[in-house]
Write a structure and sequence with these properties.
The two termini are 33 Å apart. By secondary structure, the protein is mainly alpha-helical. Helix content is 44%, strand content 5%. The strands form 3 sheets. The protein has a two-stranded antiparallel sheet with strand order 1-2. Strands 3-4 form a two-stranded antiparallel sheet.
Length: 425
């Protein structure tokens, strides 16, 4: 795309991807893609989302008050998770192995027992149709085997990622050591959870958390008591040495980071639960990383077409001295080498958003405010009012709300530094 004149693929919406129903991923997978997506969700939840939320909350001096007033409302689940972490945060790699072994039991034994008690294999609907009719696959729970390589890989790579999150040193160990340590972990006895809801409607989304103010206050007092007992103050972290938790952003192309190894083990064990054929590491890496195979000839053709557009731009700029290149001089190309098909069209003009009577912005524009990180939010807002005659109603970082004028409790943020507000969020 030619800067400042053409639109880009990102500025035009693609058709939405077809989403797998929540109940299918959660309880009724029927192919390997479902188990891989389930594994990706587990990775995101364990090593990214929850760790990020814990860091954000503990960065506050009084995070419980912040949790009550933050946008989106209070979350009992957040307090429960922090309370649990205060009791179970690892200090050694052996602690991480125990955590991973218990996760195996939770994922592949207890959750399946819960599902089969709720919906037995021989269950029939009112019309006599079996509940577990295709495409549903009746699952079976696994029994941990300290000699099964996939079982041990799950424990090892889960433990390594959990250790990374808490800054716990990882010693050089082999699978035989992992086998001995895993076998020594005492498992709690399975207990059926009465009242636990299992979604079976394919049109339903994940159930929303129910908020009980009494339960929230009770949990808050428990967490405060644990903080006092452990000598933890607001603004500190739960990692070893009081450091914040490390976020394990998914990266498929680094073999040493345990990411693909974790997803491979998690997805294949989930597949065993439901008698789904397992996949090798490369296949699971391709699906989990959304890698689209491309032929070298396609890459060469695209590179050549891009070079032609660059020649047009260079020729007009250097020979004719034109600063603004007519849009009609350039071409979009749609190719399919299998047919073969080459279809050319004029590129779309960049979308312009008018912000005042005399000014507009495009996706190529950005405003740089070189006032340093010490500028307050009030000064930041005044800058736009003085220079552009624009009144700031909201400040956002990606999808995070920094400031909104309609929220009274955000008024106190006007005196705070923009840099600290952005870092906190």
């Amino acid at each position: 795309a030619v800067v400042s004149t053409q639109s880009t693929g990102g500025s035009q919406r693609d058709p939405p991807e077809k989403e797998t129903p929540y109940c299918t991923l959660k309880s009724f997978p029927n192919n390997l893609d479902h188990t891989i997506q389930w594994a990706r969700d587990k990775f995101q939840n364990l090593f990214v989302n929850k760790a990020t939320e814990v860091n954000q909350l503990l960065a506050e001096q009084d995070f419980i008050s912040y949790l009550k007033t933050r946008p989106g409302g209070p979350r009992i689940g957040s307090l429960k998770y922090i309370s649990k972490l205060l009791d179970t945060a690892p200090h050694t790699f052996e602690d991480c192995i125990a955590f991973a072994r218990k996760k195996f039991e939770s994922y592949y034994v207890n959750s399946i027992k819960q599902l089969l008690i709720t919906y037995p294999v021989d269950l029939a609907l009112k019309d006599g149709t079996p509940f577990w009719a295709s495409p549903k696959r009746p699952p079976k729970f696994l029994t941990f085997n300290a000699e099964d390589e996939t079982h041990l890989n799950f424990v090892y790579h889960t433990a390594c990622l959990w250790a990374n999150v808490f800054s716990v040193p990882i010693p050089p160990v082999d699978l035989s050591w992992v086998s001995r340590q895993s076998s020594a972990v005492v498992m709690p006895v399975f207990q059926f959870r009465h009242g636990k809801k299992i979604v079976v409607d394919e049109s339903a989304s994940a159930p929303a958390e129910e908020y009980d103010p009494n339960e929230f206050d009770k949990l808050a007092e428990q967490v405060r008591a644990k903080f006092i007992a452990k000598g933890i103050k607001g603004g500190s972290g739960l990692g070893v040495g009081g450091v914040p938790l490390k976020i394990e952003e998914f990266e498929k192309d680094v073999d040493e980071n345990h990411h693909i190894d974790f997803i491979t083990a998690v997805a294949n064990l989930r597949a065993r639960n439901y008698s789904i054929p397992e996949g090798d590491r490369l296949k699971i890496k391709r699906i989990a990383g959304k890698i689209i195979p491309a032929m070298a000839t396609s890459t060469s053709a695209v590179s050549g077409l891009v070079a032609i557009e660059l020649v047009k731009l260079a020729k007009r700029s250097l020979v004719n001295g034109e600063k603004d290149v007519p849009l009609a001089s350039f071409k979009n190309c749609f190719i399919n080498l299998g047919l073969p098909l080459f279809a050319f069209s004029e590129p779309g003009e960049v979308h312009k958003t008018r912000v005042t009577k005399s000014a507009f912005i495009t996706l190529w524009d950005k405003w740089e405010i070189k006032k340093g990180h010490e500028i307050t939010l009030a000064e930041f807002n005044k800058y736009f009012l003085d220079k552009f005659k624009l009144e700031v109603n909201g400040v956002f970082q990606d999808v995070t709300m920094i400031y909104t004028s309609i929220f009274p409790n955000h008024a106190k943020r006007l005196t705070q530094n923009v840099g600290s507000l952005v870092k906190r969020n």
